[in-house]
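From the methods appendix. Each design record in this collection lists the tokenized structure first, followed by the designed amino acid sequence. Records were kept in a plain field format so they could be parsed without special tools. The example shown here is representative of the layout used throughout.

RECORD:
FOLD TOKENS (699 positions):
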């Protein structure tokens, strides 16, 4: 019996045996993302490219969850794991069905190139909404939960996750094919690498994808430094290039002279499979003496090992999954729950929750009110039904609901033959006839996203400003001037400033998924209390930020920003609820490898979920400027209910990093833990009306 068919052997042994039976040309061809079949060895054709950022994407119907930044707003790793489990079940079910019909096309495999764990360091980056925000600790914890949910814990992987884009990648989009992201050793260890290290070491992520850019001079898909990091961490999956990134080596980065040299640079530095077309020259590079047969064989074995782990040569525990397991009611309920948790209440003068008994007419206004795209974000699948914000309100309210688009998302008119602002008068009329106005503004994936996908070609998917598009700025101004009680719902994947203080409430919905309109309506009418927290800082003015191309973290994100800059609109970790959850007391005891902490929370308001957040501040000379998140826990409390929450905070989470990039525990420095439902900064305290409980510890 061939070893590669023997289930008593390890996946490594089986992969080695299988590849040994291939010709050298066959091995070369397996390194392309669209790998051909080898019928004599029972190797089916396989396309490695599939996406599952917030639902199985680009291959027909699947449950569509809130965009990743909205999932991050939940601050709930258990929810992330559940979401990922649903995604992988549907991925496997669709793979089974497509395979039965001989359909092995792109986006139909089991290798999901998600999650995106880059750090959202600058609000201008168009792809930031694909990430889990600006904090390395939050990103690592949510990323690990997502990977574990995707891959499962059985004999075989249910699907294979991928940590991308390795590394130091967060715009500008227009420069990504030629850009050199320069980061010093401290920023590498403190900010850009921790989430990748956690996903490799803790979650055993099956794949890592290299970024388009260079990092400190080396192209990320052919970087000796980054490859050594993966080896150091014990990575034993497969490494994939970003799509067509390897041709950038010679065409844009100019670190090689020919495509064959680019093949060699990538392959020698651990890139097993090429998303793109450069690896059609692998055999030519071998003939030219640029790479060895052993290097080709090693890459092919890595890929076959992953396919073995996925059970592509075995009967598996997942073979019974079928199309009836896709977009089930249970899965849609998870999407709805995720949508509820994605919403962050940033302002409320008491207007929310709305009392339907006291309202006859609601005016729903704005370009994102009846927009399906406003639910999606990018890298999305196809839902069989989309509940827009207007739909959600209409379904939840028995009175009259008036509607006006108000304006185009970004053009100066809705109708091509109309005059500028051709829907503005209608919006004002709707507001005048309403008891309450729900004003839905923001962006969608056509205005913030990936280069080549977004239609704002001036910025290649990035944002040039934190302002709303001009037609929406005018709409907000004129509707608020009517003077009716108004709730603004901001639908976007990143920081925006609506430049107003006249609204009665402001709800950040991010891109809330196919059930998002229902989730928003439940919050508006008080069926659900909002509990989301901002995973990114919302700023006032983009011009007060460091240059977009500057990758130094010196003045970036809540950990290092300067209070004197006075540029924060809403802080990281901030979000209101209909309850009143406060930390009444906290204590902490340092053990050999962790801090064992307890916090007593009490809710004096309506039943709600909230997030216990723990930050640490070190007076070490090597600490971040302010403080850093080191623990969090989603907590649900009824009215008047208290709970004692126990946490174990690894000492490794309380380390600092020196200028040489060495991480260490500074036991001599004063260290303080802060327990609260937001950051321990003045603005968070002012906006929430709550103070954190400080506990000094001796490390």
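DESIGN:
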């Amino acid at each position: 019996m061939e070893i590669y068919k023997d289930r008593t052997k390890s996946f490594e042994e089986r992969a080695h045996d299988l590849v040994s039976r291939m010709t050298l040309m066959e091995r070369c061809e397996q390194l392309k993302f669209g790998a051909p079949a080898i019928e004599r060895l029972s190797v089916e054709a396989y396309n490695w490219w599939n996406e599952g950022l917030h639902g199985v994407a680009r291959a027909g119907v699947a449950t569509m969850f809130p965009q990743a930044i909205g999932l991050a707003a939940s601050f709930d790793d258990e929810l992330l794991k559940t979401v990922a489990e649903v995604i992988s079940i549907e991925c496997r079910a669709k793979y089974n069905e497509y395979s039965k019909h001989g359909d092995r096309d792109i986006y139909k495999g089991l290798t999901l190139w998600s999650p995106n764990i880059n750090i959202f360091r600058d609000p201008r980056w168009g792809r930031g909404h694909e990430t889990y925000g600006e904090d390395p600790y939050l990103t690592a914890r949510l990323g690990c939960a997502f990977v574990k949910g995707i891959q499962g814990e059985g004999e075989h992987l249910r699907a294979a996750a991928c940590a991308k884009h390795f590394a130091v990648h967060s715009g500008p989009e227009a420069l990504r094919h030629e850009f050199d992201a320069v980061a010093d050793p401290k920023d590498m260890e403190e900010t850009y690498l921790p989430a990748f290290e956690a996903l490799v070491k803790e979650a055993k992520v099956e794949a890592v994808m290299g970024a388009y850019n260079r990092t400190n001079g080396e192209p990320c898909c052919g970087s000796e430094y980054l490859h050594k990091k993966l080896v150091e961490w014990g990575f034993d999956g497969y490494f994939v290039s970003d799509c067509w990134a390897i041709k950038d080596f010679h065409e844009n980065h100019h670190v090689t002279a020919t495509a064959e040299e680019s093949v060699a640079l990538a392959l020698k530095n651990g890139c097993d499979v090429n998303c793109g077309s450069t690896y059609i020259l692998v055999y030519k590079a071998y003939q030219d003496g640029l790479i060895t047969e052993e290097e080709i064989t090693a890459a092919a074995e890595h890929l076959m090992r992953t396919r073995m782990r996925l059970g592509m040569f075995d009967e598996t525990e997942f073979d019974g999954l079928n199309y009836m397991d896709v977009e089930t009611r249970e899965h849609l309920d998870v999407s709805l729950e995720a949508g509820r948790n994605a919403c962050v209440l940033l302002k409320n003068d008491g207007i929310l929750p709305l009392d339907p008994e006291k309202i006859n007419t609601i005016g729903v206004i704005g370009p994102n009110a009846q927009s399906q795209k406003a639910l999606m974000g990018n890298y999305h699948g196809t839902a069989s039904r989309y509940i827009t914000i207007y739909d959600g309100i209409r379904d939840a309210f028995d009175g009259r609901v008036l509607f006006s688009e108000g304006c185009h998302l970004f053009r100066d008119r809705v109708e091509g033959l109309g005059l500028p602002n051709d829907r503005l008068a209608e919006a004002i009329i709707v507001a005048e006839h309403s008891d309450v106005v729900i004003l839905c503004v923001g962006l969608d994936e056509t205005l913030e996203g990936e280069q080549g996908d977004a239609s704002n070609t001036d910025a290649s998917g990035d944002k040039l400003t934190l302002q709303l598009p001009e037609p929406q700025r005018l709409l907000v101004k004129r509707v608020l001037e009517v003077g009716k009680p108004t709730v603004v719902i901001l639908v976007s994947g990143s920081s925006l400033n609506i430049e107003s203080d006249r609204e009665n409430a402001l709800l950040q919905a991010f891109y809330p998924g196919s059930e998002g309109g229902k989730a928003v309506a439940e919050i508006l009418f008080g069926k659900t209390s909002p509990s989301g927290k901002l995973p990114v800082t919302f700023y006032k003015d983009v011009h007060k930020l460091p240059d977009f191309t500057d990758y130094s973290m010196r003045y970036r994100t809540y950990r290092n920003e300067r209070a004197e800059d006075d540029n924060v609109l809403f802080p990281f970790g901030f979000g209101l609820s209909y309850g009143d959850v406060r930390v009444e007391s906290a204590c902490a005891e340092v053990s050999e490898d962790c801090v064992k902490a307890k916090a007593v929370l009490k809710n004096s308001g309506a039943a709600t979920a909230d997030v216990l957040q723990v930050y640490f501040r070190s007076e070490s000379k090597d600490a971040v400027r302010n403080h850093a998140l080191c623990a969090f826990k989603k907590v649900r409390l009824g009215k008047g209910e208290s709970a004692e929450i126990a946490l174990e905070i690894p000492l490794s989470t309380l380390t600092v990093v020196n200028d040489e990039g060495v991480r260490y525990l500074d036991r001599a420095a004063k260290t303080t833990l802060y327990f609260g439902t937001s950051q321990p900064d003045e603005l968070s305290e002012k906006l929430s009306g709550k103070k954190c409980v400080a506990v000094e510890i001796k490390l």
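APPENDIX NOTE: The first strand starts at residue 34 and ends at 35.
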